[in-house]
Amino acid sequence: MASANFVQELTCPICLEVFTDPVSLECGHHFCGACISQFWERVSGDVSCPQCRQVFAQRNTRPAHILSNVAEQVRQLRVGAVERKEEFVCREHDEKLKLFCQEEQEMICVVCGLSAQHKMHNVIPIKEAAQGHKEKLEESLKLLQEQMNQSVRSKREGEAVIRQLKDQVDGRSCEIRAEFEKMHQFLRERQQQMEAELQREADKILTQLENNLKRTVDKISSLEGVIQGVKVRLEIDDPHGVLKDIQALLKRCELPISSPRVVSVDLPEDVAEGRLRYLKVWKKMRAVVSPVPERLTLDPDTAHNKLILSQDLMSVKFVTVGQNRQDHPKRFVNILNVLSSQGFTCGRHYWEVCVGYKSEWVVGVCRESVDRDGRHTSTPAEGYWVIYVFSNSVKIPNVNSHLEIKLRKLGVYLDYEQGQVSFYNADNMCHIHTYTDSFTEKLHLILNPCDYETGDNSEPLTLITT
Known about the structure:
Oligomer: single chain
Strand order of the largest sheet: 9-10-21-12-17-18-19
Largest sheet: 7 strands, antiparallel
Strand content: 15-25%
Structural class: alpha+beta
């Protein structure tokens, strides 16, 4: 008879019997054709291997003819063995196992069922017990299949999240490379331009110096000729020889006394002042970086009557005495708010606000249509995406967190299409909080300097431009 290990290799993992019409899956595992078909009938969509859990988009199987022949031979051997000897018999009484003890969960013979050991137990016919356990196994199979489907869904979701993360990283990497390439290209062009300007100015000075040098060399040559003539005349002893053409010789000695024209080797100020030029380059490079701190002004028509705006409309502070302003439908009546004159319906924007040493303030973004008359909570549901400071502690509406951050400058970033409003410590660009929402109308920067009872909150809120 075939060995136990050999028979195990020929056993279907589903029915636990020797293969009948075995088939092979794409993963290489084998099952009875009917078993795998019934197993997959309970599954909608993609199916998987019951053994290794590999998922298949198609329900493809291949007949395993050689395995089928071997399994049939083993089956014949086992049938012959059963014919020679009954397998399911009681070891103690040598009787057929026809009953099943519910308490002991084992098959027993009729004699065992009448014994004192099983007399008080619930004993049922073995066919009835097999049917009951089949039903339990079917229920277990349903639960296992549900877990399998859930696991497959979780696997797909996990793979989707991984792909999403990879796509996000790839997109951000491309964005980083593109932004830095723009800056690199700008710097390379500015470097080449500055080097060319330096070389042009240097060439101008060098040409003047070389011309001076050539004139000096020519004068030296003339002087050498005159000096040589004078020396020769001085060596003559005959008075007639000394005086011969003396006037012409003396005239040659009367060369004009001149010094080379002074040439300044100082480079022009706009070329020589390198450090300041780098600062100019940095300022110009801001136009290449996106987004950059934008220049905003505050809208006087929206300012509460107890707020004073600076002349350049870039600073706001609270005063105890209300200002005599005309009523305006855009003006805030009960909240110490003021909006930016500029509104935004698309794009990415970044602003910086100097909060100084104020102990209380509110800064953020709001919808243009927010209520100007009532008292309300500054939450996203009301059209506000803000952070505020009370008692030097940063608080975020609808978020149970108080951040102890020493803020002197606040950065506000708006990405309209992505539906994001983010806040940063503008001194070190540390992230504070990001709101994610859906924007459908014009948005404005909003400032609230808050009132004060002591002098520690009397400073203004000021928009910063660099």
